[in-house]
Structures are given as structure tokens and as C-alpha cells.
Amino acid sequence: MIEILLLSTLIIAIGMSFFCVKVLFRKNGRFSSQHIHDSQAMKDRGIHCVMDQDREMRRQSTCGVKEREK
């Protein structure tokens, strides 16, 4: 049981060290943005985040949703 715990802790520590190498050893190092609107490849394909798509569809809609009369 203790061997599995130590092995899993070691694997997590190695993964975290690889994950943080860019941040720790580069001047002004930081993680790149993972947002869709920041990706040039997504912009080239015309793919937007769901919030932007929803906002765009609401602007294009002329009839909207009618409320139910009582």
C-alpha cells in the first residue's frame, strides 16, 4: 500500500515539475492562454467560444422569444 502511495506521489511530482519548467526557468515565463478566442488557428477556422456564439445569435435574432399570455 505504501509503495503505491509513494509511486503515485513521485509520478505527480515529476508531472508537476515538467508542467512548471517553462514558468520557472524562462524570463517572464507564463502559460499560454487556453481560451478559444486567443487561438489564431481557431480564428482562421471561424470557431468562436460558446459565449461569443450565443451573443452573436441573440443579436441576429429579430423575433426573440414571446412570453406566454395568461
Architecture overview:
- The protein has 3 helices and no strands.
- It has 70 residues and is mainly alpha-helical.
- The mean pLDDT is 80.
Which helices and strands occur, and which strands form pairs?
Blueprint: H1 2-25, H2 40-45, H3 50-60
Keywords:
single chain, 70 residues, mainly alpha, 3 helices, elongated
Summarize the structure.
This protein is mostly helical and 70 residues long. It has helices at 2-25, 40-45, 50-60.
Class by SSE composition: mainly alpha
Order of helices and strands: HHH
Averaged pLDDT: 80
Instruction: Identify low-pLDDT runs.
Output: none
Task: Give the end-to-end Cα distance, rounded to a whole number of Å.
Answer: 65 Å
Largest sheet: none
General form: elongated
Cα Rg: 23 Å
Helical region count? 3
Helix content: 55-70%
Q: What percentage of the residues does DSSP assign to strands (E)?
A: under 5%
Query: How many β-strand runs?
Result: 0
